[in-house]
Design a protein that fits this description.
Length: 500
């Protein structure tokens, strides 16, 4: 509770510690059982650091809030309610009469606020000041309106707090005719350091307000809307509220009444916006074999029943068995038909830079009978160095003897597939049905026409691709640039470290 946070802040300041409120609340019952005088001792210690607090019982009641058993009684006492004599005696809190408490109420509230202001800034808001009733006849404020009574109270609070923020909401007429006309200039001097006019909302204001509330709503629900104002349209909001002089409550009430109305949006257009936003924000790591293969399998699965590069795709086998014999190197199989004959293409996405790993994976990809393959397909954007003997041996076997394929993994070709896979995983199924998403894929044709997809399904060339990256060449280039940069620098300016 905030009371417990306040008690912790007071104790930490007095003892120069950094306890957390949770830790103190958990430990306090045990501490109280071992040292029954701990509350009185802490009260004396805290009170010595706050000499402006002339009622130490307020500090004691705040500290009692750390005890879950005593907190309800301490809260009642701080609120001015009476405790039983037995409870008040046990907690060493004075049980004043109601009249005494009423007389002391403002002083007690001021000192509580003063304590709070030592660890945070209290904000006090006064609303609904525009009533027409006057103060009671027997009150010292007799004859004053509600707004004038509150303004006088604000002056006293202003004088009492070491820091804080006072906020008033009132109509301009009430401010000008009732508060500004007070004969006590001290009231006016302590109010309205800053006046904020609350004008009626215009079109831009309405759009911003609705967008803000919906952003909070979708964030809390972990949803991705088609656009920021869904299920409303910006044009509709402007048409409804432009020129009306609506207030915030009017706008929110209208939104609540119309939230369930069918939105007039084009779902395909919304999906295209989401696609572009995802493409902009997506970070791609080509070395993540699993993520690349999952995107490929997802997109190939969409092509079931379609014929691409003479291969009619029937299904995607996500688990190549027996899995224990390939250690997960074979990511999936494409099952289909080509020229009336069955096709079973095993796909291995392999960006690893360790020769032994690459050799083991390629060996698995050439074992057609073990894994029921008619063709093996290596997806890799890196060259295989000549000194990786096992990897080169099985690469040659795959390409030249077994009719397999080596397809270059390129960022610009895999990215659209990654975007579509990411969209599918995060898309709100309540907003976009599977049929609508399938229609979007069909019209976009980002999968059917993808060069990487088509290359995997096309007739193998039997040759290693030329456009792969040679990591050894890249390293040579970097080292060359570093050495060139070092030779151009002034070696006399370098700090030499004695590592002897």
């Amino acid at each position: 509770m905030q009371w417990q946070e306040l008690a912790t802040a007071l104790i930490n300041r007095a003892l120069q510690k950094e306890h957390s409120a949770q830790a103190l609340v958990e430990q306090f019952p045990k501490l109280l059982a071992q040292k029954p005088q701990i509350v009185s001792q802490l009260t004396a210690k805290v009170a010595s650091t706050y000499p402006e607090i002339d009622n130490p019982y307020i500090i004691k009641a705040v500290i009692w809030m750390l005890s879950p058993t005593h907190a309800p009684f301490a809260a009642n006492w701080l609120a001015g309610r009476e405790l039983s004599d037995e409870q008040a005696t046990m907690m060493d809190l004075p049980n004043s009469s109601k009249d005494d408490k009423d007389a002391e109420a403002f002083g007690t509230a001021r000192q509580i606020l003063d304590l709070i202001s030592h660890y945070t800034t209290p904000v006090i808001c006064f609303d609904e000041l525009d009533g027409t009733e006057s103060a009671d006849e027997d009150s010292i404020m007799a004859g004053f309106t509600r707004a004038q009574v509150v303004a006088s109270l604000a002056k006293d609070i202003y004088n009492s707090l070491r820091r804080g923020i006072l906020v008033f909401t009132t109509y301009a007429k009430t401010w000008n005719e009732e508060i500004k006309d007070l004969t006590t200039s001290a009231v006016k001097d302590r109010m309205a350091h800053k006046e904020i006019a609350l004008n009626a909302l215009k079109g831009d204001d309405v759009v911003q307000l609705v967008g803000f509330w919906l952003d909070q709503f979708y964030s809390q629900q972990n949803l991705t809307p088609p656009h920021a104002l869904y299920p409303f349209e910006e044009k509709t909001l402007r048409d409804v509220f432009d020129g009306q002089g609506a207030g915030v409550r009017d706008v929110l009430r209208w939104c609540a009444d119309n939230f369930g109305a069918k939105a007039t949006i084009d779902p395909l257009e919304s999906l295209e916006k989401i696609y572009q936003e995802t493409a902009t924000s997506l970070e791609i790591d080509l070395d993540d074999n699993e993520k690349m293969s999952n995107a490929l399998a997802f997109c190939l699965n969409y092509l079931r029943g379609q014929t691409i590069e003479k291969v009619k795709i029937q299904s995607i086998d996500r688990v190549v068995k027996p899995k224990s014999k390939h250690n997960g190197f074979l990511n999936f199989r494409i099952l289909g038909e080509e020229d009336g004959k069955p096709v079973k293409i095993g796909v291995c996405v392999l960006q690893n830079s360790h020769g032994r790993t690459v050799g083991s994976a390629l060996k698995c990809l050439t074992q057609y009978s073990t894994f029921d393959l008619t063709r093996g397909c290596l997806v890799r954007g890196k060259a295989i160095p000549s000194h990786w003997q096992v990897a080169n041996k099985h690469s040659d076997l795959l390409l030249k003897d077994l009719g397999g394929e080596w397809v270059t993994l390129k960022e610009e070709e895999i990215k659209p597939l990654l975007v579509l896979h990411t969209m599918f995983k995060t898309l709100d199924q309540d907003l976009f049905s599977n049929e609508v998403f399938q229609q979007f894929l069909c019209e976009k044709r980002a999968i059917q026409e993808n060069p990487l997809i088509r290359e995997i399904l096309s007739d193998p060339s039997g040759e290693a691709p030329e456009e792969v990256t040679n990591e050894d060449d890249e390293l040579e280039k970097v080292l060359s640039e570093v050495m060139s940069s070092a030779s151009d620098s002034n070696l006399d300016d370098l700090d030499l470290l004695d590592v002897a």
